[in-house]
TrEMBL record:
Any single biological process term in GO: amino acid transport
Recorded superkingdom: Bacteria
Name of the protein this chain belongs to: Amino acid ABC transporter substrate-binding protein
UniProt domain Solute-binding protein family 3/N-terminal: residue ranges: 42-271
Signal peptide span: 1-29
Gene3D superfamilies the record matches: Periplasmic binding protein-like II
Biological source species: Vandammella animalimorsus
Signal keyword on record: yes
Keywords on record: Signal, Transport
Length: 304
């Protein structure tokens, strides 16, 4: 005997089934990062391909990715989840926050500025680097100040805070210049090296890394006033206090032991791959003070 189901009951049944199908996704969203790592046996870290010396593709046979923040992430995870296998995922400035936010990446190890706008989407660990936004130009360009960029073309990488600082400077100085955005730092540097742009604006450490990796490191110089100092930190999911606490505790321990200072020296003062050129960027007093008294203040509070 056929069973008769009214349209209303059929509709309600369908909604109930849809709810059941959505349940695992909802439960997954509520699962903390530490639980997620424990269940999967792996941890996914977000790296960069062209952000030397912070995070970049080395591909020298020994390892594919390296850098100050990459090795820092590895040391932190070795303390928190020593049994987990680390998987590396190359990210860009534009997709870092979304992939952290949706749980695809567990820990962002690229150079990401901690600011209040980004804190609405993700959380930041303790500050582990302080960058100064300046510019790279050709050594024989005669350019030493941002004031000399009027009427010229300036390169910057899409999605970086350097873009915002550059535009702010232009408005404040009532100066007009053309801005070309590269998809990553290599492409932005190519705009400079090819002559399409007369300057490339970015964090000083990243500029030093790109210049050191270029075919002619002595053909460029980092110059200009400091447009802004920014706290750089590892990135993790928002509203996951257990994972943030674990990461922050591990970082604080590395700061106290002096291991983080040694790591800085390795990547900023010693020759680094692929060309074994030293960046020679000594640790600034601001970062030294942060290692003594760690905090996770965003850019807006950091400047005050």
């Amino acid at each position: 005997m056929p069973i008769k189901i009214s349209f209303r009951r059929f509709k309600l049944l369908g909604l109930a089934l849809l709810g059941l199908c959505a349940l695992p996704a909802a439960l997954q969203a509520q699962t903390g990062t530490l639980d997620k790592i424990g269940q999967s046996g792996k941890v996914v870290i977000g790296v960069r391909e062209s952000s030397a010396p912070m995070a970049y593709r080395i591909a020298n046979g020994e390892r594919e990715f390296g850098g100050y923040h990459v090795e820092l992430c590895e040391k932190v995870l070795a303390q928190i989840v020593p049994q987990a296998k680390i998987e590396y995922m190359a990210l860009t400035s534009q997709n870092t926050l979304p992939l952290i936010q949706n749980g695809t990446v567990d820990l962002g190890c690229g150079p990401t500025t901690n600011n209040q706008a980004r804190q609405k989407q993700v959380a930041f660990a303790l500050t582990t680097y302080v960058s100064e936004v300046r510019m790279a130009v050709k050594a024989d360009s005669g350019i030493d100040s941002f004031g000399q960029l009027a009427g010229k073309t300036v390169a910057a990488s899409a999605g970086t805070t350097a873009v915002q600082l550059l535009r702010k400077y232009g408005k404040q100085q009532q100066m007009e210049f053309e801005t070309l955005l590269g998809k990553d730092h290599f492409e932005s540097f190519l705009l400079l090296s090819s002559g399409r742009a007369q300057a490339f604006v970015l964090d000083d450490n990243l500029l030093a890394g790109v210049v050191a990796s270029s075919p002619d490191p002595k053909g460029y110089k980092i110059t200009g006033e400091v447009l802004g100092s920014e706290p750089i930190a590892l990135v993790l999911r928002k509203d996951d206090p257990a994972f943030k606490q674990a990461v922050d505790q591990a970082l604080a321990g590395l700061m106290r032991s002096g291991e983080l200072a040694q790591l800085y020296d390795k990547w900023f003062m010693q020759p680094i791959p692929p060309k074994n050129v030293a960046l020679n960027l000594p640790m600034g007093q601001t970062l030294k003070a942060l290692f003594e008294n760690p905090n996770d203040k965003p850019l807006e509070e950091f400047r005050n």
